[in-house]
Amino acid sequence: MKKGLAPLTNLLKRNRVAANLTIVLFTVIANLGGASAQQPETFQKTKSATISPEMLSASFAEVAKRVEPAVVNIDTKGKVPEIKLRGSDPAGDDDVLDYFRRNLPRRPNYAVGSGFIVDRTGYIMTNYHVVQDSARITVRLRNGEEYTAVIVGADDLTDLAVLKIEADKDLPYLKFGDSESIRIGDWVLAVGSPFGLEQTVTAGIISQTKRETPAGTAFQKFIQTDAAINRGNSGGPLVNMYGDVIGVNSQIATSTGDYNGIGFALPSSEANYVFEQILRNGKVRRGFLGVFLDSVKKEFAQVYRLPEAKGAIITQIRDQSGAAAKAGLLKDDIVIALDGIPVENHQDLISRVASVVPGNEVAVTVLRESGKNLERKTIKVVLDERPNNDVVSDDGTKRILQVDPTGAEPPPFIGLTVADIDVQSRRRLRGNKGVLIKKIDPASYFADLKNSSGGDALEEGDLIQRLNRTPVENLEGFNKLAAVLEVGSPVVLHILKYDRNRRQFNAMVVQFTVK
Hints:
Layout: H1 2-14, H2 16-30, H3 41-47, H4 53-67, E1 71-78, H5 95-103, E2 110-117, E3 123-127, H6 128-131, E4 134-140, E5 146-155, E6 160-164, E7 187-192, E8 200-211, E9 222-225, E10 237-239, E11 245-253, E12 262-267, H7 268-281, E13 287-288, E14 291-295, H8 298-303, E15 312-317, H9 323-327, E16 334-338, E17 341-342, H10 346-354, E18 361-370, E19 373-382, E20 384-385, E21 416-420, H11 423-429, E22 435-440, E23 463-467, E24 470-471, H12 475-483, E25 490-499, E26 504-513
Antiparallel strand pairs: 1-2, 1-4, 2-3, 3-6, 4-5, 5-6, 7-8, 7-10, 8-9, 9-12, 10-11, 11-12, 13-20, 14-15, 15-16, 16-17, 16-18, 18-19, 21-22, 22-23, 23-24, 23-25, 25-26
Helix pairs in contact: 1-2, 1-4, 2-4
């Protein structure tokens, strides 16, 4: 700290104007309170003044001083795992299994994370993955005080959780700032316990906003920052230069497991919404259509003659007793507006539907195929409630199926081999028609196509049912349709993909340009 104060002292001696600005800046930041939503007028005036590096350093120190008392270290003790032996019946009378249960060491998992107090009565915000499956949660404050915390509620779609500790006094707390007003290039501080090192402060800038990540959900559009975030920082606050929380540190992009220069924080607007919902309902209640969706891309827009590549495609009605089915929405409907406001893509539609209270009615405008034309319809839908545990993510693993070496047909596209449905596949496909994908060349662009979840769009064993709006009955028909395509042609495939975990078929739309 001595090295940091020396340049500031020299600056004050050299420049009286800069000294006055520094004193004003110190006074304002020192007086910032957790309950104050209005910034002092003095700060607004100082904000436009030129701030020297020394003054910026001093402001970092004051913001850290303001924030640190409300940041907590979280230690969790996981539940002791059950010992299971393959081939043994846990309910049966198995002497060998009983011996191992009694004699093998059973150690719980321990983990550390971060959080921050958001209310003087002891409510704490953190990441759900920090406290998930924990048997005991210990919260440690900066002054060394320790409390046992309970989970008030959690939301797996945003990976957020609200904890509560009981203290016999008012606790220091932070308030949520306006994450919608942040700009790329704004300075921020990240505070937390990386590797268990409590009260660690790092500085950086906002690198990007509304960033989607492969591991994220439709409800996670992150603030990207270069402030150092490591394991143990999860759940800690990302604060602006007012000391307000503008994000909850949640993820990192890394090739080593540690900091590689890119971190992600969930915006405070979403975190505050989750916090209020959990306090009000014990959970987050979101509207739900009950459909699977994909986004309209340029190829789909070209094939379907849409004016622009915007909208969401209903690829499957997931629940025949759900909101969409009851209202009359159909598979392959193209949703172009919700309550009169245009829909950008499938994630936009999911987020906006989720923001509506379940049980309320919305107007869904769709384009529906009617022969060679698209008919515009507006359908009233009373929304269901989205299940909290209904996140379906692709694990990124490829299914490698046995390729039939006999009767190989020339690939209609270079790198993709399809064939008629064989006897072994007929029962699995349950009467569905189309052509099977038998082989995908790893070097072709087909192997690089991704779906909206980040998984492989096409896999061996998938069934192609339609090509550019035309049904595919067999290999001969598919080849005729593919023969007229050339490099640069837009392609929209309607496929059936088998989900082994759920033991069901999922209808999907794959969009690409022939290369």
